[in-house]
Structures are given as C-alpha cells and as structure tokens.
C-alpha cells in the first residue's frame, strides 16, 4: 500500500509536472472552450476541484474494481506493478493528453479530433469503435449496479439519495453562489448518514412487475435516470453529483487504507500464482486487458474529450483534472488488489473463491474489503460491506450517466456526418442511444442482463481505444515538433498487447461457436488496425514537415 501510493505521488508531483511543462506546454492565458463556447449546458467554466470530482468518478466506474479483482488470479505482484506503473506512465499521460488536445481544439471529442488530425475515414472507423465501447459500458454497468442493489438492499437509499443531495448542491453552488466548502462538508455528511439510514431501512423491489423481476426493474429505472441526467445541463446534476460522490468515495478509500494500515492484514494470495486453475489464459497479453481501468483505459479519453474539456476553466487545470484523475483511479485499483488478496482468512479461502478465471470481481472486493474494515476500524461487517457496495454502485452509476451523454454525442456526430438532421437534436439522439442499450440489454437477455454478453470484449476494445488515442496525441506532438516518446512507447505497447488479446479471443470465440462475439471481434480488429495504419502515415507526414492540422500549440 505504502509503496504503491508513494509511486503514484511521485508520478503526480514530478512526472506530470514535466509532461505539463515540457510536452503539453500548458498556457494559463489560453481561452478554453468553456469560456469561448459557453452555453451553460455542456460548456460551463468549472472550479477545478468540482471538475476533478466529475472526471474521477466518471472514469472510475466498476472496472477498476472488477479488473484487478479478477487479475489477481495470476498473483498480486503482476497486478500491483501494472496498476502502479501503468497509472504513472500510461494512464496519466493518456488522460491528461486527451483533455489537453480537446481543449486546444474547441472541445472536440477524440473521435471528431481524429478527422482533423488523421482524416475522415479514420474518424468514421474510430467512431464505430467508440460507439461499441460505450454500448458495452452502459449496458454492462446497468447489470453490475442492479446486481449490487438486489444483493445489498441497504445500499438502495444511499444510492438514490445521492441524486437529491447532488441536485441541492448544484443549486447552492451555481444559483445561490454558496462557497464550495460548506456544501462539500454537508453533502459528505448527508451521504454517509444515508448509508446508516439504508442499514436500518433496506429496500427490495417486488418479485414481478409486468413480468420483469427485480434486476430487470432496476435496469429500466437506471436507464430512465441516465437518459434524463444526460439531457440536463451539466451543472444541475451531473457535475455536482460526480463532485460529491468523488468526495464520498475518497473518504471511503481513506477508510480502506486506514484500516489496512491499522490491521496490517497478511496477504494470503501468492505474489505470482504458478498454480492457476485449469482454463486460465496466459498472463501475457490478458493481464494488460483484464486490468484496463486502473492502469490505462480508452474510456478515460472519451470522458476527458467529451465532457471534461468543455468544463475546464483554465488550461493549467488540465494537469490536476486529467493526471490526478488517473491517480485517483489507480488508488481505487490498488485498494481492490489489497481487498482481494489480504481480505481473506487463509490461502484455502482465497483459492475457494478464485477457482476459475473470471471469478472474484466486485463480490470479492466487497467481502474482502469489508473484513479489512471490520478488523482495522472495528466497523460492523455489514456496515463495511454496505460502504463498499455503495462505493462500487456510485462509481458505476456516475460512469453510466456520463457514458450515455457521451453516446448521445457520438450519435449526434454520426448523424451530422451522414446528414440526418433530426437525430442531431439532443433528445432524439439520447433516445437512439437509450434504444440501442435497451435492445442489447433485453434482446440478448430477458432479465436485462444482455449487456454482459459482449462484456468479454470490453477490456481489449478499451485498450485499443487508449492506444488509438495515444496515436492521435503522437501525431499532434510530431506536427508540433515536440518529444513524442512519452506517448509513443505506451502506444506501441498497448496496440501490441490489445491486438494479441483480440487474436487470442478470436480463437476462443471460434472454438465456442460464439458468432456474435466473433463478428464483433473482427470488426473491432479491422477498424483499429486501419486507424492505426492511417495514424502511422500521418506521423510520417508530420515528421516530413507537413503543417500542423490542429491548434494544439502555443498561441
């Protein structure tokens, strides 16, 4: 824990400062899109701490818990090294860079920016990959949240109560101009009070409503909420909800780390597991796509360039929002590794949970972390589990409502490209995004769990997207005659590992005769390789002396 946190602290205070000054060259006088294009709906200048809360909780989701909680089956040491070093040298540079590039280009998303930097064909292919990734995230996270709400009814009140708290904070800060300190303190206190209230009044849904069970009911309610939230001005709900959730979640992480410090639990899992269960794939390349969020994630680039860039008050805030946002997610992934390797009484108990690849997940995090909280801080085990369940739910929920807003942007961009003007409207694009998510959720699973059908492709698609985003950044840096190694090395590593993983999965899907995933795998692979080749050509052109195609340079 101490070594991991120290590595991340060094990364933020030293490495990110070098990247900000020497590579991205942030300009405090640059007029950001939040000011230039201000509409108080999507483009809103925002306090950097509030924006960090939005960015951190939006990018975190359930993935930095699920990924490490599965990957420790290979042992805790590989997961630890990938999370800590990946956060510092990969995720921070990627997230920070996507935010910077978007801010320098009028808040364009990374998909649209591809057209400016590389070409329209690459942009169109990139949008396909982005849309599929968002579809996976939104449909699958709805399943994760509904499962947690059903399994832990005590988490229902704090989960939905957080929305009311966020609405009040948004009004207090933006309408009544209340200084940030008191809404922050009161909001966190109320959120934790709601956790205690949830313990006393657990809520369960009816066994059947119109033929839908509790999990399906929650999924429908979650998508209804996400659709409404994605259309509201960001300052009304999205931004204050993410901010106050970020504070609450950081308090939860603090409790987890304090309990680890006081309890000093023994790690019962092996450092490197030489006796993995039968059927477990090789650690290379699967480790690097199983842990995506928490080391590096393409989804972060979508959030950075999709919503965060439109709210950045000063360009110099990009270092705190982008790089420190990645550090926050790395800290969550590190906590997940600790909970899933030191939260069990014995090696035998750990092996009983990790008896096959894919086991563990959120349940191992909640149970293992709950044990550490109980032993380290003396919390009631049920209360500790509820705190961690609410933490996981709020992370996933904030990602889901941001993800649907991003999916709406992609639909609008695609409609603009093909010239379908009606779908360019916000509410209609949102209906299209919702319709595709619900079609997947209920078309591939009658209980709404269809989102999990394509989840096996999430990690590889996510990492491919991160690699392609780094390719865009590399092209920009080459055209600006700036050092490119800091993005190019992570780019090459990610593309190699992701393509290897897609090929491994391709063989598995074919052997299992899973034609849906096989087809999607081929589409994603072809699109990604095509965009990568066009990026290489663009890099060569840029190195040869072509003029910059973007505004990503000093003014």
Explain what you see.
The chain is mainly alpha-helical. The chain has one domain (1-467). The protein contains 21 helices and no strands. The chain has helices spanning 2-23, 33-36, 48-60, 63-71, 76-103, 110-117, 120-151, 156-175, 181-200, 214-231, 238-263, 283-290, 298-306, 318-342, 347-353, 361-377, 381-418, 426-443, 458-479, 485-511, 515-543. Helix 7 (120-151) crosses helix 10 and helix 14 packs across helix 16. The chain is globular and about 65 Å long.
User: What pattern of helices and strands is seen along the backbone?
Assistant: HHHHHHHHHHHHHHHHHHHHH
| Unreliable parts | none
Question: In total, how many domains does the architecture comprise?
Answer: 1
Q: Radius of gyration over alpha carbons?
A: 22 Å
> Helices and strands: which structural class?
mainly alpha
Helical region count?
Answer: 21
Helical proportion, percent range: over 70%
Q: For the residues shown, what is the average pLDDT? A: 89
Report the end-to-end length measured between terminal Cα atoms: 43 Å
Regarding quaternary structure, how should these chains be classified? single chain
What is the β-strand count? 0
Q: Globular, elongated, flat, extended or rod-shaped: what is the shape?
A: globular
Percent of residues in beta strands: under 5%
């Amino acid at each position: 824990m101490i070594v991991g946190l120290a590595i991340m602290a060094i990364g933020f205070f030293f490495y990110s400062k070098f990247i900000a000054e020497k590579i991205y060259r942030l300009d405090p006088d640059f007029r950001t899109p939040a000011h230039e294009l201000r509409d108080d709906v999507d483009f809103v200048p925002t306090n950097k701490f509030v924006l960090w809360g939005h960015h951190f909780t939006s990018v975190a989701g359930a993935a930095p818990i699920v990924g490490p909680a599965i990957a420790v089956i290979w042992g805790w040491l590989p997961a630890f090294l990938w999370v800590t070093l990946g956060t510092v040298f990969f995720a921070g540079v990627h997230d920070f860079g996507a935010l910077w590039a978007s801010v320098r280009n009028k808040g364009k998303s990374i998909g649209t920016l591809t057209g400016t930097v590389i070409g329209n064909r690459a942009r169109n292919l990139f949008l396909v990959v982005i849309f599929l990734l968002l579809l996976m995230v939104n449909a699958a996270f709805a399943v994760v949240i509904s499962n947690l709400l059903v399994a832990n009814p005590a988490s229902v009140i704090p989960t939905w109560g957080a929305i009311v708290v966020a609405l009040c904070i948004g009004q207090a800060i933006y309408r009544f101009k209340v200084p940030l300190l008191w809404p922050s303190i009161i909001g966190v206190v109320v959120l934790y009070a709601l956790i205690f209230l949830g313990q006393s009044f657990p809520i369960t849904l009816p066994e059947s409503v119109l033929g839908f069970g509790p999990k399906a009911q929650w999924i429908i309610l979650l998508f209804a909420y996400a659709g409404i939230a994605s259309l509201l001005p960001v300052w009304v709900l999205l931004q204050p909800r993410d901010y106050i959730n970020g504070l609450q979640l950081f308090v939860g992480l603090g409790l987890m780390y304090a309990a680890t410090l006081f309890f000093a639990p023994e790690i019962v899992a092996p450092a490197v597991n030489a006796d993995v269960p039968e059927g477990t794939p090789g650690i290379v390349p699967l480790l690097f796509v199983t842990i995506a969020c928490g080391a590096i994630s393409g989804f972060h680039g979508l959030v950075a360039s999709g919503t965060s860039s439109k709210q950045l008050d000063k360009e110099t805030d990009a270092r705190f929002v982008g790089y420190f946002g990645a550090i926050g997610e790395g800290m969550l992934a590190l906590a997940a590794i600790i909970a899933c390797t030191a939260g069990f009484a014995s090696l035998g108990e750990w092996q009983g949970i990790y008896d096959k690849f894919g086991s563990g997940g959120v349940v191992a995090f909640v149970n293992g972390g709950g044990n550490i909280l109980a032993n380290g801080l003396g919390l009631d085990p049920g209360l500790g589990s509820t705190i961690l369940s609410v933490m996981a739910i709020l992370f996933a929920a904030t990602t889901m409502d941001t993800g649907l807003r991003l999916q709406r942007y992609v639909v609008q961009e695609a409609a603009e490209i093909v010239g379908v003007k009606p779908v360019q409207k916000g509410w209609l694009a949102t209906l299209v995004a919702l319709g595709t998510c619900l079609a997947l959720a209920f078309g591939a699973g009658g209980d709404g769990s269809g989102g999990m059908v394509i989840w096996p492709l999430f990690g590889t698609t996510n990492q491919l997207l991160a690699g392609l985003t780094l390719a865009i950044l590399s092209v920009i840096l080459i055209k600006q005659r700036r050092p490119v190694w800091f993005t190019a090395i992570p780019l090459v590593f990610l593309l190699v590992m992701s393509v290897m993983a897609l090929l491994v999965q391709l063989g598995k899907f074919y052997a299992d005769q899973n034609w849906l995933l096989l087809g999607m795998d081929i589409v994603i692979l072809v699109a990604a390789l095509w965009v990568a080749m066009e990026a290489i050509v663009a890099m060569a052109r840029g190195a040869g002396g072509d003029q910059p195609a973007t505004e990503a340079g000093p003014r």
